[in-house]
Amino acid sequence: MRHEEILHRCFRCGWCKFTSDYSEFNCPSYRKFRFDTFAPGGRMWLIRAWLNGDIPNSARYQEILYSCATCGSCVEHCAFSFRDDLVEIFISAREEMVNDGRIPPPVRDFLKSINVHGNPFKAPEGERGAWAEGMPVEPYSDQDYLLYIGCVGSYDERGKKIAKALARLLSRAGVSFGILGDRELCDGNEVRALGETGLFRFLAESNIRMFRELGVRKIVTLDPHAYNAFRREYPGMGGDFEVLHYTQLLSMLVSQGSLSFSGFRERVVFHDPCYLGRHSGEYEAPREILDSIPGLERIEMRQSRENAFCCGGGGGNFFTDILGGGEESPNRIRIRQAVAAGAQVLAVACCQCAKMLEDGIKGENLEDRIRVLDIAEIALTALKG
Amino acid sequence: MEDIKRRLCDIVGERFVSDRAEELFFYGRDPGLMPPHSPDFVALPGTVEEVREIVKLAFREGVPVVPMGAGMTLTGLCIPRKGGIVLDMKRMNRILEVNDRARYTIVEGGTPTGALKAYLDAHHPRLRFSIPDSPAATTIAANVMIHGQGRLTQQYGFNSDMVTGLEVVLPTGDVARIGSCSLSPDWFSKGAPLPDLSGLFLGWLGTTGVITKVGLKLYPRKKMREVEIFITDSPDFIPDIIYEITHTEMTEDINIFAQPLPLIFKDNHHVVVYFTGDTDEELEFKKKSVFHALDRFIKNKDGGFMTVGPGMKQSLLDMPQRSASTFADVTKGGGFEYSGPIILVEKYPQCSRKLDELAEKYDLKYHATARIIGRGHAMMFAFSFTFNRADEDMMDRVRAALREASEFALSAGGVFWKPTVDEQRRLLQAMDPVTRRLMQMIKRNLDPSGIMNPGNWEVP
After folding, report:
1. Is cis: bond before B320, omega within 30 of 0?
2. By the 8 A CB rule, do A275 and A233 touch?
3. Model pTM?
4. Which of A93, A198, B57, B449 is within CB 3.0–4.6 Å of A47 for a Cys-Cys bond?
5. What distance in Å separates the CA atoms of residue A270 and residue A27, rounded to the nearest whole number?
6. Interface of chain A against chain B, CB under 8 Å?
7. β-pair type (B95-99, B85-88)
């Protein structure tokens, strides 16, 4: 297994579980399950035990490994020099489990769906670009940017709304961009996170080949997960493109004066998506956009930026839901945190977060207290003229 | 066993009980060198009532119960040596009260030290407690139960001395309140003016009950903290240096460390002196007092203050101190254990030389740490070795070195802190027989079924 030589170095000291100030447990799976086996240290020790034959690849072991949201909080807070590899270690263990042929049924179904249908929703490939019908968008030819939407933005009803909002916004700002429509392929970030390296490589290589054929130079992604895959994984396979998350592009447009806003008079708290924040180090661009909107009162949750609490959708859990359910599911905890901060609107910059957190609001029966809006939706609403 | 599992599920809910291989593996060992032993169940109680019901069930069925905080003693005290139920207490992590004026807090038995620090930082910035150098996950209850030490130990003694009250589930399932809280709503004292029954639980390593609430003294938190390091190249000067510093009564904490790597530290003994103050003048006055107290060592060229760089300073001022954990990975092996006897400060030279000898004999990376307790009444001297968890031979060498360190410490008049089972046996053998019988009597009366963390403090 990759990184196997690091496993024995975990001291199981528990720094990885906390926020920087130790005020909260910040590992979503530990927070929910509360057995130390579900904390990063527990995983490290159990992976080693599994490789040594001390424990089987059981349903419980699978639940422990696959409930990790790959949120990277452990990477942020571990005290040791191997901290940067923690998420990769968990992904490597999942690779071993995929190779072993024993993985949780929802993971199997997800991977099968990507294999068969090219998307996790078991929807026809031909419908991938349907979200853009009636929208002012063109197929990508040689525009400045390829707007990459991804599976959730293409097929999920909530995701589609966000994709539309972003496309309208970019059009209004006069950005030269095109989309792939039904030619778009899954970016593979979640495939990789769930341990199917072979399928990920196939998707990545197919995407890279298509991007090259189309002469793509700059990509702007709706989804931080796709942003992560393109930015961190694709270059190693020859996919060198300039990649932006859409909040970074919007922030640039705001600073250039291409986007200006009239007003949005609500108290807004921003939820840092793990793959934009901790994984990519981008904390400012979303805040800069919100701060440029007159009347918008931006507040912070205690757990924000590097200490943000995951919505629970990362690492494939958006699709497999191994981490979800119950009062201590991360999305419900996060909603309670947003309400405690006094927010009327929970702003997101990820369509997976949007869906997860809206479910969290329903779970908490807080529909009358708070709503989830993507930054693209807020910006479009606040747009001048 | 199925019946016990069903009843545990009835008490805490199915999701907080496990008898699966994964939990039995993980909770059957700790990061130290003690041999593992699996529990039969792991249960995560959320309330004192749930703890009580579990203990009553265990009492009826004769099943061992092992309370566990973060399991960070390294000496295997939470390893369920005779199986049974491990009670992971960390769901009980509420801070129940902070009495700002009387300077104490009441916390649940699974509250991490980090959580209390964060709470005080946010809500009571003029209060602090004695934070140990263990990870932030370490629980307050476990720390006081093993007579832990922290950043205020030089001023106020062991962390267990700072307890103001206890709520304990006895091995019969009864709930006892210890101290003023036994008859008053106020948790100001664990003992005086009553008979101090806290001694029935503190230091007993979970063999006499499960601590579900702790009252803990809080102390004034000064606005500023500073650290200085005095160096000498001879361990022989350390006892006098400590005597002079403690005489000033000007310091927050005093630790000593010695280690061969990096080379800049080699052959030196570093006396780390912490100061606090509310004003620059106060801080400066305290520093000057200590500097003057050490004048003669400086004039004789027996030592001097070193320049502490910003990175090192920050690391030393951290509370809790993360660098104490990272020592575990010095050999890139994730293993670290120490024998830490409580012993007279005047034994520092002997301890230091013994550690050097052991490190050379067993070819091990080592680190000496001493924490001064009170005004030099004693110190905890840690014979610390790192090991590679993937190297059985190295682990055996560390075990052998620690065994020799223990033998030395006992012969030098030390008493093992958080002793391994082997060290407990040696302590009991060496102990005054009347005292041993008294311990036996107390244990038998409190735990007639012998279910509480059995294997520990077992009187032969």
Report:
1. yes
2. no
3. 0.96
4. A93
5. 19
6. 8-15, 17-19, 21-23, 33-37, 42, 45-46, 49, 54-56, 58, 60-61, 64, 79-82
7. unpaired
Rounded mean pLDDT of chain A?
A: 97
* Chain B interface disruption, residue of A6, A23, A36, A301, most B CBs within 10 A: A36
Residues with Cβ within 8 Å of B312's Cβ and at least 6 positions away in sequence, in order, are none
Residue in B with minimal Cα distance to A4 = B390
Q: Taking phi first (over 0 means left), then psi (-120 to 50 degrees means alpha), and beta for anything else, what does residue A295 get?
A: left
pLDDT tens digit string along A235-262? Answer: 999 999 999 999 999 999 999 999 999 9
Counting one residue from chain A and one from chain B, the pairs whose CB atoms sit within 8 A come to: 110
β-strand A145-148 against A218-221: which pairing, if any? parallel
Contact A46 B15 (CB under 8 A): no
B296 touches chain A (CB under 8 A): no
Looking up tokens 């052991």, which residue turns up? Answer: B358
- pLDDT, mean over chain B: 96
Write the pLDDT tens digit of every residue in A337-369: 999 999 999 999 999 999 999 999 999 999 999
What is the C-alpha to C-alpha distance for residues A128 and A182, in angstroms, rounded to an integer?
Answer: 5
Three-state SS for B339? strand
Are A9 and B136 in contact (CB < 8 Å)? no
B15–A33: do the CB atoms touch at under 8 Å?
yes
DSSP-assigned letters across all residues of A44-99: HHHHHHHHTTSS---HHHHHHHHT-----HHHHH--SGGGGGHHHHHHHHHHHHHH
Say if residues B132 and B352 touch (Cβ distance below 8 Å). Answer: no
Q: Spell B399-437 as b/e; 16+ CB within 10 A means b.
A: bebbbbbbebbbeeebbbbbbbbbbbebbbeeeeeeebe
DSSP H/E element including A284: helix A284-291
> Quick check: B259 and B265 in contact, CB under 8 A?
yes
Q: Is the torsion defined by CA of B450, B456, B458, B460 positive or negative?
A: positive
pLDDT digits (tens, 9 = 90+) for B38-67: 999 999 999 999 999 999 999 999 999 999
d(CA B248, CA B242): 10
